[in-house]
Write a structure and sequence with these properties.
Elements (H helix, E strand, L loop, with lengths): L1 H12 L2 H15 L4 H40 L6 E3 L1 H10 L4 H17 L5 E3 L6 H14 L2 H30 L4 E3 L11 H7 L12 H8 L5 H15 L4 H21 L1 H21 L6 E4 L8 H9 L1 H10 L5 E2 L12 H6 L4 H32 L11 E2 L5 H10 L3 H22 L3 H4 L1
Parallel strand pairs: 1-5, 1-6, 2-4, 3-4
């Protein structure tokens, strides 16, 4: 176990910017791409991840998050569980003694499902295996049953692959990159809201309206420009955070920069992945006629969709308000208060970049997010204590904001709260049916 853990930890500690390019270089060679082109694609992928992660760290986390945190403190919140963010959550997850076993579990399940033709998605985003480790770890601490922990992790792996299958066509249209999809756990935010998305797409007077970046610009003039929207949101966040005029204006410019620069950086993913995607398509056509194969990747490939970035910024004040007013919520948004864009990628893709509709569907997503992170708070705190995590100063209880709906349903079921768990499971199943029947392979019919 120690040897496996050391090997996996070494690989994962390379980070997505190093690990994924190596994986993509190997995949490119397997699909028949020349070594030089395969190397360049891997290198460009590493550059893309580095550029976006640096930008998010410097502005979203480094500049915008403090304003949101200040607004919460000014509101006098006494919320119990502090969100420590994904970086700390991943460190805690990897410190779980059985962490390394989830790595081969994901690979085996994926390859088995491909062989049985139960999925067309090859998930190469192995760096984010930590999200399944997190789910397994908190489930084990909560239930004391390792088998249950593995089962829950396996279910999440399968869900990610199937969501990758069902959303692949729309993701390819959004990114302009053929034969790719997204296998990030953030896609699971669709599970509680698919009926709402389906309803919004059928409400008279709303279904035929388009509120993407270009439409808003045409309707609102310069006020609809992403940069201007960012400027306005930055001013609002600065005022809520109690900033002076100078600091508020500086923040406003930084928020505007996020709205403009982040989507443009996403074009690097297209440059990196296009050669490998084309080689993969030719490989499959030649050896497996009629068989599709989607390359499952991390969520930053979707930042080219303006609704992903714009909606997540617009929703920061909404998250703060929900945290303060929702009955039963005990989560204090902190570490990921300005870094939850992965939660809105599902609606943004299904709505074709419609910012207003994405925001509407994302409000219940944020509600579920707060309740899920509240539910795991005591268990996650215990896990962190067990692995010797150094708690933030002044905080005795912690949680992870983006825990997700599946872990919430699991916890409620183990607690015997069937009035919550059973409706959630039924809702998830219903959402899968709606997604497959109404949003999979339907783009030509809609155009």
């Amino acid at each position: 176990m120690d040897i496996l853990l050391n090997v996996v930890n070494y690989i994962v500690n390379l980070g997505a910017a190093v690990f994924l390019p190596v994986i993509m270089f190997i995949i490119g060679l397997i699909f028949g791409l020349k070594p030089g082109k395969s190397f360049r694609s891997g290198l460009m992928l590493g550059i893309a991840f580095t550029a976006i992660s640096t930008f998010i760290s410097a502005l979203l986390v480094g500049q915008i998050a403090p304003a949101a945190q200040s607004a919460i403190e000014r509101a006098g919140s006494n919320l119990q569980y502090m969100d420590v963010g994904w970086t700390a959550a991943s460190m805690i997850s990897w410190a779980w003694p059985f962490a390394a076993t989830i790595f081969p579990l994901q690979i085996v399940i994926n390859l088995l499902m491909l062989w049985l033709k139960w999925t067309d998605t090859l998930n190469v985003d192995l760096w984010n295996v930590w999200t399944k480790i997190f789910i397994a770890a908190v489930t084990y601490i909560f239930t004391g049953n390792l088998i249950v922990a593995y089962i829950v992790a396996a279910v999440v792996i399968v869900i990610e692959l199937k969501l990758g299958d069902f959303t692949a066509e729309r993701i390819q249209k959004s990114t302009g990159i053929p034969d790719v999809t997204c296998t990030h756990s953030g896609m699971m935010s669709l599970l509680p809201v698919m009926p709402l998305i389906w309803l919004i797409d059928r409400i008279p007077g709303l279904k035929d309206k388009k509120f993407d970046a270009e439409s808003l610009k045409n309707k609102m003039g310069f006020l609809g420009e992403p940069a201007v929207l960012g400027l306005i949101m930055g001013i609002i966040m600065g005022l809520l955070g109690g900033y002076n005029v100078a600091d508020t204006l500086k923040l406003a410019i930084k928020v505007a920069a996020v709205m403009i620069v982040l989507p443009r950086l996403a074009s690097l993913f297209s440059e990196a992945l296009m050669p490998i995607s084309e080689a993969a398509a030719q490989f499959m056509q030649k050896r497996f006629p009629g068989r599709k194969c989607y390359i499952g990747l991390d969520w930053p490939i979707l930042t080219a969709n303006p609704a992903v970035v714009t909606s997540s910024v617009l929703l920061i004040p909404v998250l703060i308000i929900l945290a303060l007013i929702l009955p039963g919520n005990k989560t204090l948004p902190f570490g990921d208060v300005a870094n939850f864009a992965c939660l809105v990628i599902g609606p943004a893709i299904l709505f074709g970049g419609d910012i207003i509709k994405t925001c509407i569907a994302s409000i219940p997503i944020l509600t579920v997010t707060l309740y899920a992170s509240t539910a795991i708070g005591p268990t996650f705190t215990k896990l962190a204590q067990n692995v010797g995590f150094a708690f933030p100063e002044g905080s005795a209880s912690i949680t992870y904001l983006k825990a997700g709906p599946v872990i919430w349903a699991t916890f409620e079921g183990v607690l015997g709260h069937w009035y919550i768990a059973i409706p959630l499971v039924i809702l998830f199943a219903f959402s899968f049916v709606i997604l497959k029947k109404s949003y999979t392979n339907t783009l030509k019919a809609e155009e």
